[in-house]
Write a structure and sequence with these properties.
By secondary structure, the chain is an alpha/beta fold. The protein folds into 2 domains: about 5-95, Udp-n-acetylmuramoylalanyl-d-glutamate--2,6- Diaminopimelate Ligase, Chain: A, domain 1 (3-Layer(aba) Sandwich), CATH 3.40.1390; about 100-315, Hexapeptide repeat proteins (UDP N-Acetylglucosamine Acyltransferase, domain 1), CATH 2.160.10. It has 4 helices and 40 strands. The strands form 6 sheets. It has a 12-stranded mixed beta sheet with strand order 8-11-14-17-20-25-28-31-34-37-39-40. The chain has a 10-stranded parallel beta sheet with strand order 9-12-15-18-21-26-29-32-35-38, with no helix packed on it. It starts with a strand and ends with a helix. This is UDP-3-O-acylglucosamine N-acyltransferase. Homotrimer. Keywords: Acyltransferase, Lipid A biosynthesis, Lipid biosynthesis, Lipid metabolism, Repeat, Transferase.
Length: about 350
């Protein structure tokens, strides 16, 4: 897929300085640019590389004026960084612009789908599924019975969506994610043998949610596990049954949230955080990586540690912890003085 400087300038509303017919087919860092590549210069620390880069086209700010000879064609824009990001988004959309139903694949009875569906080979779509417009379902994906998928949503290869799940519009579910598997519900009898508690609820994912690769969201025992709009989940996260995650909350990799916990809106949760079940985490809470959360947290708190403490309390305590051997030695010395 090739683009000329003139075409790129048209997308970015920029000005070409150099050859408008210069063609590129790949992206590169400015210091690693080669012929046929497109790069950008936004940070002045990298300005030296524009005089040596072999990139065919470079996006720069309108204020940039070269001090030495350059070989690259320039596209001048208001903000080089934002323009390059916009171009990446456009490139990604073009790259993912697929449609049609590949064979072999299975669409069961009662299923309806909108315009421009892409269904990759070896996909299975169950009964009575409702799929919106411009949905892309990549190969080897399973969609169970009675699932609803909104407009412009993407399910990448190998996603598993269990029955009754509802996924909103503009969502992205990455490879290996499992949506709607059974919650972890077992009851022991008098002999200590565990029996399964049926999990008959579902998962509801609202609009513009991203779910990372190999993340698992369990169906509710009763009712719904709910991921509100704008939530961003990293790879390898476990969301248990009946959890609710509020709008625009972001959670980093390897975090686990136990059953029936409610997480507020606009929270930021670091990687490898463990959160117990049946608690409430308020709006705007920040939880540092590797924290263990064992009780409810009010709005706006910043916490760290395991079990988690207030952020400032943890940092103060950690200073003392590092000095603990010296503190013990001082106490022992004082004891000896008192004894004498």
């Amino acid at each position: 897929m090739k683009f000329t400087a003139e075409q790129i300038a048209g997308i970015l509303d920029g000005e070409v300085v150099g050859n408008p017919q210069a063609e590129v087919y790949k992206l590169a860092k400015i210091e690693e640019g080669i012929e046929g590549s497109l790069t950008f210069l936004a940070n002045p620390k990298y300005q030296q590389y524009i005089y040596s880069t072999q990139a065919t086209i470079t996006i720069v700010n309108k204020t940039f004026e070269p001090e030495n000879t350059i070989s690259t064609t320039l596209i001048k824009v208001d903000d080089a960084y934002q323009s390059f990001s916009k171009l990446l988004e456009y490139y990604n959309q073009v790259k993912l612009m697929k449609s049609g139903i590949e064979e072999p694949s299975v669409i069961s009875e009662g299923t309806v789908y909108g315009e421009n569906l892409y269904l990759g080979s070896f996909c299975y779509v169950g009964k009575n599924v409702k799929i919106g417009n411009n949905v892309k379902i990549y190969p080897n994906t399973f969609v169970g019975d009675n699932v609803v998928i909104g407009d412009n949503t993407i399910l990448f290869a190998g996603v598993r969506v269990y029955s009754e799940t509802q996924i909103g519009s503009g969502c992205t579910i990455h490879s290996g994610a499992i949506i709607g598997s059974d919650g972890f519900g077992f009851v022991p009898n008098e002999e200590g043998v565990y029996s399964k508690v049926p999990q008959i609820g579902n998962v509801i994912i609202e609009d513009n949610v991203d779910v990372g690769s190999c993340t698992t969201i369990d169906r509710a025992t009763l009712g719904s596990t709910v991921i509100k709009k704008g939530v961003k989940l990293d790879n390898q996260i476990q969301i248990a049954h009946n959890v609710l995650i509020g709008e625009n909350t972001v959670i980093a990799s390897q975090t686990g949230v136990a059953g029936s916990t409610k997480i507020g809106s606009n929270c930021i949760i670091g990687g490898q955080v463990g959160i117990v079940g049946h608690i409430t985490i308020g709006n705007g809470v920040r939880i540092q990586a590797q924290s263990g959360v064992g009780k409810s947290i009010p709005d706006g708190e910043i916490i760290q540690g395991s079990p988690a403490l207030g952020y400032n309390d943890f940092n103060k305590s950690y200073v003392h912890f590092r000095n603990f051997p010296k503190i013990v030695a001082d106490i022992d010395e004082l004891k000896q003085q008192i004894k004498q």
